[in-house]
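Re-run with default settings, no changes from the original entry. Doing this only to confirm the output is reproducible before filing.
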Amino acid sequence: MASSDIVVTPVQGKAELKAFIQLPKRLYAGQKGYVPHLDLERKDAFTPGKNPLFEHVEVQFFLARRAGRIVGRIAAQVDRAYLERYADGTGHFGCLAAEDDPAIFAALFAAAEGWLKGKGLVRATGPFSLSVNEEVGLLIDGFESRPVLMVPWDPPYAGGRVEACGYRKVKDLFSYDYDVQNAPETIGAKLLARAGMANRVKVRTANMKMFDAEVRTLVGVFNDAWSDNWGFVPFTQAEIDHASKAFGPVIVPELAVFVDVDDETVAFIVALTNLNEAIRDFDGKLGPINLAKLLYRLKIAGVGSTRVPLMGVKKKFRNHPLMGAGLAMIAIDHLRQNGKRLGKTSAELGWILEDNKATNNIIRSVGGVHYKTHRLYEKVLAG
């Protein structure tokens, strides 16, 4: 069908926001690699006043309809924090989901690009749903792999449809499967010994009695370690506070590992319980019965899979030929040991930029297997 029979309109009101949230469930039901978000979580994530991201990101959600039936969605974003940092006239798109029809994709992108151009922007990149610190990239490989917390799932046809709308690859993001039970010990301790650091290094886990302070420490290391990363935007304090509360149920103290050198925290790694494993049969709903199931699965039955969304080594150590890799590896070693003791079976490590050779090499050397790839796209917006 032609794109002329497709109508794309901005989302208005609670009913349309609900339809925006529900659409992927209809499109992707039954797909092996797909687990729906919790509806309540998505509603909060997409609502100003609930998600502090909206303090620096302006978002417009769009729905596409054909003959009154919803067939696609997209979001367009202006991130003021990003623009203050890079000043490159770039806006973002995200939350892309549509039936497999090139006309629908074309109509969605036309609406998003028109909105971005109306804001004076000259380039679009994405998907960011809704920022680089939330869900990032379009899945292009690993469609039937394990569904994991805050890792987007997209159908195999989506990449080609995006490229047909004039978008080209800007970066690929790699995710690794790590066998917690069987991965070998790393050479981290040996590297630190060779660097003369053995007696200066201490490894500890998160002190939940000092949770807020531990979070500030983690974010401080993260912002230092990743400040030169492509597209990096630092967390705001409000976002930190929000994430701390939101992720509370999936934080396991033994899986938040800090590495100190001379009493200064210089490296960390955090694995979160994979909520997607626990909610796999909920269809996004969290009523009383599902809430009871969730608590049982998290607290009693246990969830075997985890995700490592955050790790880092401060720059002053990271570029040293022995200390950078040694500190990262010793953190991974302690995470593996603690996870094995707790009965964890797997961890997804990612995402990692394809051209971050140092981190990719470390993860591969400790037993990580590249099993998912997400892609970020860009397009220059015509005047």
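Residues 204 and 237 are 24 Å apart (CA to CA). Residues 3-172 form a domain with the Aminopeptidase fold (CATH 3.40.630.30).
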